[in-house]
């Protein structure tokens, strides 16, 4: 692949480099064997180091129109990027040690004089891995989906060391049958009118969120300056088969199920926190159930507005065979959650599906990206970052769901036990990522411990919500058969 030389930053990359919006991607991989650092370094030389972003640093150039930051290729010294700390093998609580280690790593920004990534290799046995690899990558290098796809393109099937992993693709809904030209024309016009109307409504709400609409202050919402607080990263693994069963029986998508589980889990967490506050504070004007009904709680979701390069394309890019599309082109959508204690656990999935179907019929993500790019060109990075930060701060959490390999993979010969991605540096006290891998789904949380002091409770609530939904589906299926 030809050298890219100097390359200007995309609008999103410029935002992620703004002092008030300095974001990073974290990818934690548990390995089933101890890690050989030399093998990892040789593997990096053959894959990631052939990607231009991993061999480029940020350089400020002075041009006629002002100071511009660009990607400029440089020589990479792997010893400055691959960190292998000496660890006492007799640590009493290794899982806690890993969490503390990651939190401490995030306290220090990456060195701008070299490419903005690093890999920590920790040969310490935890409850579900023999060793742990931790990638830290600046968000300006790419969007989360592209970076995760790139990392997976550097892995191979455990069953076949020469084969790339298989990642499922999201299927598009099939088009309606054209029973007659007139009826099809009517449906098409109605569909376009709905798309325009939904887009206008969503963008009006987007603007109002910038101006004054804020989510309710709850035990999940951070205070001003939350993006500067050190985060804690925890995860929980659940069965992918359970999620697929709910999806099949309810005729929904995996994303519908995950958002339904998230809505139910957040409701359980908030209900317990308000009940606890009620007990500690004595009589209250409103019961916890009444408080829940009046909560406005939204998730900010980053959406790629261009197709993400496939694993094969990225593997070819690193093998210098092709040029896959790369960049950081993302728009935001704001997804509302219905916080209520539903008698039927399946209602959470039904509500999530209705909300997502409505959001799919809108150009909110494309319009939010276009508006951000316009503001960036007119007013610069500082104003755009301030507006973007305000939109995110006025919502409660960030959410994402990333499809992973359907079979077990190896990271340069090291079998992977789990993958847990996350981000930090944005103004949320809570970020929830779902990452599928083989027959597992990892629920990865990034939390501000001053807001959510015990994130394991929230993991419990999410796991229990999935169990209740699964039990309800199985009971419904049995009743239907009988």
Main sheet specs: 7 strands, mixed
Shape: globular
If strands are numbered along the chain, what order do they take across the biggest sheet?
Answer: 5-6-7-2-14-13-8
- SSE order: EHEHEEEHEEHEHEHHHEHEHHHEEEEEH
Low-confidence stretches: 62-66, 172-178
| Span between termini | 62 Å
Overall pLDDT, averaged? 86
- Strand content bin: 15-25%
Percentage of helical residues?
40-55%
Can you count the helices? 13
What's this model, at a glance?
This protein has 482 residues and is an alpha+beta fold.
Topology overview:
Layout: E1 7-8, H1 11-16, E2 24-31, H2 37-46, E3 56-63, E4 66-73, E5 82-83, H3 94-105, E6 117-122, E7 131-138, H4 144-153, E8 155-157, H5 181-211, E9 232-239, H6 240-250, H7 254-281, H8 288-293, E10 297-304, H9 311-318, E11 330-337, H10 346-360, H11 364-379, H12 381-393, E12 397-402, E13 409-411, E14 414-424, E15 430-437, E16 440-447, H13 455-481
Parallel strand pairs: 5-6, 10-12, 12-15
Antiparallel strand pairs: 1-4, 2-7, 2-14, 3-4, 6-7, 8-13, 9-16, 10-11, 13-14, 15-16
What would you say this structure looks like, in words?
By secondary structure, this protein is α+β, with helices and mostly antiparallel strands. The protein has 13 helices and 16 strands. It has helices spanning 11-16, 37-46, 94-105, 144-153, 181-211, 240-250, 254-281, 288-293, 311-318, 346-360, 364-379, 381-393, 455-481; strands spanning 7-8, 24-31, 56-63, 66-73, 82-83, 117-122, 131-138, 155-157, 232-239, 297-304, 330-337, 397-402, 409-411, 414-424, 430-437, 440-447. The strands form three sheets. The chain has a seven-stranded mixed sheet, covered by helices on one side. Helix 6 crosses helix 7, helix 6 (240-250) packs across helix 13 and helix 11 packs antiparallel against helix 12 (381-393).
